Amino acid sequence: MEENRDYWGIQGRIFDIQRYSIHDGPGIRTIVFLKGCYLRCRWCCNPESQEYKIQSMTVAGKQKVIGRDVTVAEVIAELDKDEAYYRRSGGGITLSGGECLFQPDFSAALLRAAKERGYHTAIESTGCAPYEEIQKLLPYLDLYLMDIKHMDSDKHKQFTGQPNDRILENAKRIAQDARELIIRVPVIPTFNHTEEEICDISLFAASLPRVEQLHLLPYHRLGQDKYTGLGRTYTLADIEPMTEEYMQGLLRAAEHSGLHCQIGG
Question: Which stretches of the chain score pLDDT less than 70?
């Protein structure tokens, strides 16, 4: 008897689907970018993702509508176009944003449908949500890519708008419950770019059960023009990206934790 697929009709709000990605999980992947986020990170490269509402953004001098409502079935139809690539490479779908936990029911349904199709599933997430929302996704999730941005809650709130208490507590539970958890650190000058700060994060990551990897993600300015397009001010405009040599020093600091560490991911 065919499985009930009523959940394929669940609707969510996205702003982009990126095919043929080789980042954010193994193999060739399709990245689905969801609208809405609990944080307001100063360096966010997708500021159009932060608000759940549909917006207008100036892109190359023209107004572009950012955000559209789709069903699980519609997204799966897009995924199926690249099924052969997923099969050959071990790839699949990654939910990004924004924050997929901002739309937990849609995200869980989409991951469930992808698993039903045999695709590898991953999410990029801060884990800043009630744990019962996270639990909705875990049965259908192969890989959790989780940001840990800072160990100091006050500084975390200063740069992201939220303290880190819930994030760190959720990380401990996710490490127990998820199939695989990789910790990722967006390395931002003036925020968390010192060896001491990176060491603190990496030691916390190493304390989590079954966590073996930590990825350092260097700061870049690729999203800066989007702030202008949204009529917003990019507050880190005077911050320069770090050199490769500097990042290598942070990598060595992170490796003291005993984790497998890398730049990028």
Answer: 1-3
